[in-house]
Design a protein that fits this description.
Pfam families: NHase_beta_C. The chain has a single domain, classed as SH3 type barrels (Roll). Helices cover 10% and strands 39% of the residues. It has a five-stranded antiparallel sheet with strand order 4-3-2-1-5. The chain starts with 7 loop residues before the first strand and ends with a strand.
């Protein structure tokens, strides 16, 4: 999946840590939230697999912008937070 800058995405509302041992780089506070792709950072081995010495396919990594007041209920309009997220956590809207 390739996502262009400006694409609206939703972070999957998934909780793999409830199903057993795992390694997750996706913050809980953005799961299920909507953001905007800023840029593609490159393709990298999936750290969720690398943590358990499993084969790790190269996966696109993106900078995704979120509206801070929507996430945390504080901040001024225009305040943003940018998070690095792998493509398998993102659903285009």
């Amino acid at each position: 999946m390739s996502l262009a800058p400006g694409t609206s995405v939703r972070v999957k509302a998934d909780w793999p840590e409830l199903r057993g041992r795992c390694h997750i780089r996706t913050p809980h506070y953005v799961r299920g939230e909507t953001g905007t792709i800023l840029r593609h950072l490159g393709d990298f081995p999936n750290p969720e697999d690398l943590a358990f010495a499993r084969p790790a396919a190269a996966t696109p990594l993106y900078h995704v912008r979120f509206d801070q007041p929507s996430l945390w209920g504080e901040g001024a309009p225009g305040d943003d937070i940018v998070i690095e997220l792998f493509a398998h956590w993102l659903e285009p809207l």
